[in-house]
């Protein structure tokens, strides 16, 4: 079974509470999401492997440490996942970016892929899949499965702002090798699949749409 990591740093929880408020403007919501994703990125990269390299400072030669292997890939589940990218790139500016587009079929309620674009050499990269909300878990499960089937990266982590218990259970059952990182696990889903108490539709609040 994968591990659920709750990122409970005081700054993360403070910003999340401000974002939840219904009166938060699009501008403030987007800005705080960027700040929060920067903070969360530190936790997700904490266990990345390092390798020694020889460098020369202005004073002398020394052995320093850098992240081992190909550059990290951040994979956004469109469209709301894009709200995480700028903040995470503050921490890992050399990361490559991939996108997966999914929509829910109104009849089957199953996720259907409409877009898939990844960097080269994905099999040599560690990947962080980002989507603000892990609600039912169906889109996240489908996105990770497509990533495994088409690109086979070295490792995959999943990062979200909020999770519902139902989504965590679904994701862990489908992908027991993918750890989940979130700022909060909320109470439940409503009859329409929205997280309660949640913060509404993350995509609409990021982009100012309805």
Automatic annotation (TrEMBL):
Q: Which GO terms describe its cellular component?
A: cytoplasm
Specify one Pfam family. Answer: UPRTase
Sites where the protein binds uracil: 195, 200-202
Q: How is the cofactor bound?
A: Binds 1 Mg(2+) ion per subunit. The magnesium is bound as Mg-PRPP.
Pathway the protein acts in: Pyrimidine metabolism; UMP biosynthesis via salvage pathway; UMP from uracil: step 1/1
- GO-annotated biological processes: UMP salvage; uracil salvage
Report which reactions are catalysed by this protein. UMP + diphosphate = 5-phospho-alpha-D-ribose 1-diphosphate + uracil
**Might you give the EC number(s) for this enzyme?**
2.4.2.9
Function, as annotated? Catalyzes the conversion of uracil and 5-phospho-alpha-D-ribose 1-diphosphate (PRPP) to UMP and diphosphate.
So what family is this one in? Answer: Belongs to the UPRTase family.
Name it.
Uracil phosphoribosyltransferase
Tell me what organism the protein belongs to.
Comamonas suwonensis
Q: What is the lineage of its organism?
A: Bacteria, Pseudomonadati, Pseudomonadota, Betaproteobacteria, Burkholderiales
Name of the encoding gene: upp
